[in-house]
Amino acid sequence: MSFTTISVIGLGYIGLPTAAVFASRGKKVIGVDINSHAVDTINRGNIHIVEPELGDVVREAVQQGNLRATTRPEAADAFLIAVPTPFVDDHQPDLRYVQAAALAIAPVLKAGDLVILESTSPVGATEQMTQWLADARPDLRFPQPGNDGDVFIAYCPERVLPGKVMIELLENDRVIGGITPACSARASELYRIFLQGECVETNARTAEMCKLTENSFRDVNIAFANELSLICAEQGIDVWELIALANRHPRVNILQPGPGVGGHCIAVDPWFIVAQNPQQARLIRTAREVNDAKPGWVLDRVKQSLAECLTASGKRASDITIACFGLAFKPNIDDLRESPAMTVAQRIAEWHSGSTWVVEPHIAELPSRFADRATLVATPEALQHADILVMLVDHAQFRAIDGSQVTQPWIVDTKGVWR
Ligand SMILES: NC(=O)C1=CN([C@@H]2O[C@H](COP(=O)(O)OP(=O)(O)OC[C@H]3O[C@@H](n4cnc5c(N)ncnc54)[C@H](O)[C@@H]3O)[C@@H](O)[C@H]2O)C=CC1
Ligand SMILES: CC(=O)N[C@@H]1[C@@H](OP(=O)(O)OP(=O)(O)OC[C@H]2O[C@@H](n3ccc(=O)[nH]c3=O)[C@H](O)[C@@H]2O)O[C@H](C(=O)O)[C@@H](O)[C@@H]1O
């Protein structure tokens, strides 16, 4: 049976592009979100998040009548759940949004429907979601490992890179983790509507662990680079040169150090493994701790630079201007969520008695959390008048700065731009 109507629950950074791409292939898509601002914005053909090329696809899908948003789930042939999965307390996964989404679709489910969990989830979450659905709909048979049911259920993680979502959504291979092989087959059929990459089928638990593994792998590799940056600072070695040299080895590929790890996935997902396997996941936990400690280390370097600057210049701290370059969680985007650069800049602004300037070409005003403790300035002003420069995000605009314009002796460069 083909899919006529597809429903996507949660219209954020993952759900909205997914809904829009299905709609662009002529499917009737019902997007569901509890945020009525998002729903109204989408129904006007606009978008409430920033992602290159997404706006055009959504506008066209809405204009053609293929994409419609609502706050209440309606009947469909397939449901994709893409709601947040943060952690709470001591890094325990919080599945309450998944539970709420499952309970919201339960009343409209019918035999033959497919339910896919896309949210990054701890191992066992899809079985848990199946149980919530089964409790809510005792009239339907739900699948269990080894036994098919009336409904198909699968875990299919999303692995798109923010900033390249509209390309990677189509091109990346997809891991398809059905509760049973029949569930996997049905889920693959759905993604083949738009997928150019391959559907690789497995079971739900392996698919859940696969997503967590991918992000933990990157976190551990970045932690290795960040640890090297601390060691090199002690040894008087340029960490950027060191990594470039080591990466000339045919089997070495070290990532880049920075002010810490941001975004709301890589800094979160490894904790799901640690929470379930505290005894075994020692390296994964340590990597998280190394990366989380990096903003504090950067702040210490800024304090050290200020002390040197005061001694050399004879000025008072209140006369010194510190300029922070970049606030986003990574280069060339405007996303400030869970940004280590933001943490560093904010902590400088709170601690420093002089002026704190922020240069961030991707935003029009500073977030309110800075209150009036920092000022957004343009690159030339910061380069000409600031006493201490702190490079936090290697945006292309910053990499393009002519080195001869950078004359300050006090520079804390977390990205190796002004080596
Ligand atoms: N943003 C990313 O780059 C990636 C995110 N993921 C995962 O995808 C999931 C979703 O992430 P994002 O899209 O970034 O989050 P988001 O916060 O941008 O969007 C989630 C949306 O779900 C809505 N929502 C919450 N509860 C709901 C409910 N009960 N019913 C309907 N809508 C509800 C929210 O209002 C929000 O609009 C998370 O598990 C995340 O870890 C996975 C890969 C990449
Ligand atoms: C394994 C992997 O590459 N996962 C991707 C990741 O997207 P995200 O944009 O969060 O990843 P990212 O580009 O590595 O950036 C994360 C953080 O790590 C930092 N970072 C990244 C690479 C590096 O060499 N050094 C470094 O410090 C970035 O500056 C940023 O603060 O997480 C996404 C997710 O799960 O949300 C996932 O879909 C993406 O494919």
UniProtKB/TrEMBL annotation:
<dbReference type="InterPro" id="IPR028359">
    <property type="entry name" value="UDP_ManNAc/GlcNAc_DH"/>
</dbReference>
<feature type="binding site" description="in chain A">
    <location>
        <position position="218"/>
    </location>
    <ligand>
        <name>UDP-N-acetyl-alpha-D-mannosaminouronate</name>
    </ligand>
</feature>
<dbReference type="InterPro" id="IPR036291">
    <property type="entry name" value="NAD(P)-bd_dom_sf"/>
</dbReference>
<feature type="binding site" description="in chain A">
    <location>
        <position position="215"/>
    </location>
    <ligand>
        <name>UDP-N-acetyl-alpha-D-mannosaminouronate</name>
    </ligand>
</feature>
<feature type="binding site" description="in chain B">
    <location>
        <position position="249"/>
    </location>
    <ligand>
        <name>UDP-N-acetyl-alpha-D-mannosaminouronate</name>
    </ligand>
</feature>
<dbReference type="GO" id="GO:0051287">
    <property type="term" value="F:NAD binding"/>
</dbReference>
<feature type="binding site" description="in chain A">
    <location>
        <position position="415"/>
    </location>
    <ligand>
        <name>UDP-N-acetyl-alpha-D-mannosaminouronate</name>
    </ligand>
</feature>
<feature type="binding site" description="in chain A">
    <location>
        <position position="13"/>
    </location>
    <ligand>
        <name>NAD(+)</name>
    </ligand>
</feature>
<feature type="binding site" description="in chain A">
    <location>
        <position position="14"/>
    </location>
    <ligand>
        <name>NAD(+)</name>
    </ligand>
</feature>
<dbReference type="InterPro" id="IPR014027">
    <property type="entry name" value="UDP-Glc/GDP-Man_DH_C"/>
</dbReference>
<comment type="subunit">
    <text>Homodimer.</text>
</comment>
<dbReference type="InterPro" id="IPR001732">
    <property type="entry name" value="UDP-Glc/GDP-Man_DH_N"/>
</dbReference>
<keyword id="KW-0520">NAD</keyword>
<feature type="binding site" description="in chain A">
    <location>
        <position position="160"/>
    </location>
    <ligand>
        <name>UDP-N-acetyl-alpha-D-mannosaminouronate</name>
    </ligand>
</feature>
<feature type="binding site" description="in chain A">
    <location>
        <position position="329"/>
    </location>
    <ligand>
        <name>UDP-N-acetyl-alpha-D-mannosaminouronate</name>
    </ligand>
</feature>
<dbReference type="GO" id="GO:0009246">
    <property type="term" value="P:enterobacterial common antigen biosynthetic process"/>
</dbReference>
<feature type="binding site" description="in chain B">
    <location>
        <position position="251"/>
    </location>
    <ligand>
        <name>UDP-N-acetyl-alpha-D-mannosaminouronate</name>
    </ligand>
</feature>
<dbReference type="InterPro" id="IPR032891">
    <property type="entry name" value="WecC"/>
</dbReference>
<comment type="pathway">
    <text>Bacterial outer membrane biogenesis; enterobacterial common antigen biosynthesis.</text>
</comment>
<dbReference type="Pfam" id="PF03721">
    <property type="entry name" value="UDPG_MGDP_dh_N"/>
</dbReference>
<comment type="similarity">
    <text>Belongs to the UDP-glucose/GDP-mannose dehydrogenase family. WecC subfamily.</text>
</comment>
<feature type="binding site" description="in chain A">
    <location>
        <position position="85"/>
    </location>
    <ligand>
        <name>NAD(+)</name>
    </ligand>
</feature>
<dbReference type="GO" id="GO:0016628">
    <property type="term" value="F:oxidoreductase activity, acting on the CH-CH group of donors, NAD or NADP as acceptor"/>
</dbReference>
<dbReference type="InterPro" id="IPR036220">
    <property type="entry name" value="UDP-Glc/GDP-Man_DH_C_sf"/>
</dbReference>
<protein>
    <recommendedName>
        <fullName>UDP-N-acetyl-D-mannosamine dehydrogenase</fullName>
        <ecNumber>1.1.1.336</ecNumber>
    </recommendedName>
</protein>
<dbReference type="Pfam" id="PF03720">
    <property type="entry name" value="UDPG_MGDP_dh_C"/>
</dbReference>
<feature type="binding site" description="in chain A">
    <location>
        <position position="126"/>
    </location>
    <ligand>
        <name>NAD(+)</name>
    </ligand>
</feature>
<feature type="binding site" description="in chain A">
    <location>
        <position position="159"/>
    </location>
    <ligand>
        <name>UDP-N-acetyl-alpha-D-mannosaminouronate</name>
    </ligand>
</feature>
<dbReference type="InterPro" id="IPR008927">
    <property type="entry name" value="6-PGluconate_DH-like_C_sf"/>
</dbReference>
<feature type="binding site" description="in chain A">
    <location>
        <position position="33"/>
    </location>
    <ligand>
        <name>NAD(+)</name>
    </ligand>
</feature>
<feature type="binding site" description="in chain A">
    <location>
        <position position="262"/>
    </location>
    <ligand>
        <name>UDP-N-acetyl-alpha-D-mannosaminouronate</name>
    </ligand>
</feature>
<keyword id="KW-0560">Oxidoreductase</keyword>
<dbReference type="InterPro" id="IPR017476">
    <property type="entry name" value="UDP-Glc/GDP-Man"/>
</dbReference>
<comment type="function">
    <text>Catalyzes the four-electron oxidation of UDP-N-acetyl-D-mannosamine (UDP-ManNAc), reducing NAD(+) and releasing UDP-N-acetylmannosaminuronic acid (UDP-ManNAcA).</text>
</comment>
<feature type="domain" description="UDP-glucose/GDP-mannose dehydrogenase C-terminal">
    <location>
        <begin position="323"/>
        <end position="419"/>
    </location>
</feature>
<dbReference type="GO" id="GO:0089714">
    <property type="term" value="F:UDP-N-acetyl-D-mannosamine dehydrogenase activity"/>
</dbReference>
<feature type="binding site" description="in chain A">
    <location>
        <position position="330"/>
    </location>
    <ligand>
        <name>UDP-N-acetyl-alpha-D-mannosaminouronate</name>
    </ligand>
</feature>
<dbReference type="Pfam" id="PF00984">
    <property type="entry name" value="UDPG_MGDP_dh"/>
</dbReference>
<dbReference type="InterPro" id="IPR014026">
    <property type="entry name" value="UDP-Glc/GDP-Man_DH_dimer"/>
</dbReference>
<feature type="active site" description="Proton donor/acceptor">
    <location>
        <position position="211"/>
    </location>
</feature>
<feature type="binding site" description="in chain A">
    <location>
        <position position="211"/>
    </location>
    <ligand>
        <name>UDP-N-acetyl-alpha-D-mannosaminouronate</name>
    </ligand>
</feature>
<feature type="active site" description="Nucleophile">
    <location>
        <position position="265"/>
    </location>
</feature>
